[in-house]
Design goal:
With 120 residues, this protein is an alpha+beta fold. The protein has one domain: predicted glycosyltransferase like domains (Thrombin, subunit H), CATH 2.40.10. Helices cover 15% and strands 46% of the residues.
């Protein structure tokens, strides 16, 4: 029985993960409103905050920030680790991509005040 709180989109897209000192590559396997599951070769500690850049199907990029909440080792895979990420910062591109993938109503365009707040 499915126990997830949110609908997920299964799609594979490349991502760049970065910390204050290093940059790594991975593949997102599924997306939700507030989380991602990423496969990568880098081991990160639970609770680490990472910057995430997703390379979208339309060749744009989405910039997110997340906290690693879950980690599994995947020795049978060419990517050694699976990371469950809780998103703490999302951009408009991500929101639109997710809504269109779930076939939900598109979000309203942000106001100028909302855009200014997102850039802070």
């Amino acid at each position: 029985m499915e126990q997830r709180k949110e609908h997920r989109v299964s799609k594979q897209l490349y991502v760049q993960l970065s910390t204050e000192t290093k940059v790594f590559w991975g593949v997102v396997n599924d997306f939700s409103k507030n989380g991602l599951f990423i496969k990568c070769n880098q081991d990160f500690p639970i609770g680490a905050v990472i910057d995430i850049e997703i390379f979208m199907p339309d060749k744009s990029t989405s910039v997110l920030k997340g906290i690693i909440r879950r980690k599994i080792e995947m020795p049978e895979s060419n990517r050694k680790y699976g990371l469950g990420i809780e998103l703490i910062k999302k951009d408009v591109r991500y929101t639109i991509f997710l809504a269109s993938s779930l076939r939900e109503p598109m979000p309203q365009a942000p106001t100028n005040d909302e855009l200014a707040a997102m850039q802070r």
